[in-house]
Amino acid sequence: MDFTIEKYSELIAALRSSGLDFQLRHDVDSAPYNSLRTAQIESQLNLKATYYFRMVPESYNEEIIKEIHSLKHEIGYHYESLTTCKGDIDAAYQDFCVNLEKMRQLVPIQSICMHGSPRSRWDSKEIWKKYDYHQLGIMYEPYFDTDFSKTIYLTDTGRRWDGYRVSVRDKIPRYQEKWESEGLVFHSTDDIISQLNDNESLLNRSGYGILMTTHPQRWNRFGFRYMSEYCSQTIKNQIKRVVVNSQFNNSAEQ
Predict the structure, then answer these.
(1) How much of the chain exceeds pLDDT 70, in percent?
(2) Distances (CA, A) of 185 to 11, 57, 181, 221
(3) What does the pLDDT look like over 205-234, one tens digit per residue?
(4) Would you put residue 175 in left (φ > 0), alpha (ψ -120 to 50) or beta?
(5) Mean pLDDT in the chain?
């Protein structure tokens, strides 16, 4: 079975033993206790990750933020201010600054990452066409500050590793097609583990580092929560597919 907490343990153990350069990133969209569990597993393997928390009740939990930080992981801000402020860039920037300062009252924040908000018409990365997050002491935004000519992006968006095909924003345009042409597209977690464990695999011979993003709410022991996540994500993927196809058709018409 895929997307169990046991499978996640296998995945990061394979990453750790592969010898590849990698960076672990987690988007805490909901179920913050799941993030604490993955943080504990990583800590046991002496691995450090970045956990991006949204400023919404289903994600933002001050006690868990502090506990994950105490395990030597980095905490980042998973911002969605342009959606929250309905496309008003100036208001979105002010909202971003207020939320950033609130989080910094708990732990240091030097990294941010856009939350995709697939049902929103606004992309919060657009804030940075007018403003500069570096002036706020932010050192890293993965969509802007990762060299994707040297780093492959693997994400479990859509509860699958090739979910960029139905993703609205969690993908890397231009490079995604290049990785696909090189055979570096994987569907299941076992596909990735198999590549990591084989020294002669395409992934190990590619020369790429790895930026891996997971959404901890997706990784559960089998039971009610597992099935609930499976069913809800299946429905979300169908909605995303409609949105992506609509965007493609609108672009073609223009």
Answers:
(1) 92
(2) 16, 34, 9, 26
(3) 999 999 999 999 999 998 878 888 878 776
(4) alpha
(5) 91
CATH of 5-253, one of 2.60.40, 3.20.20, 3.40.50, 3.30.870: 3.20.20
Query: What's CA 230's distance to the chain center, in Å?
Result: 18
Domains in the chain: boundaries: 5-253
Which tokens belong to 204?
Answer: 């190990």
Pairing label, strands 151-155, 74-79: unpaired
Handedness of CA 224, 225, 230, 234 (dihedral sign): positive
**Residue that the structure tokens 């403003």 belong to:** 131
Going by C-alpha positions, the residue among 8, 6, 1, 4 that lies closest to residue 212 is 8
SS3 for 11? helix
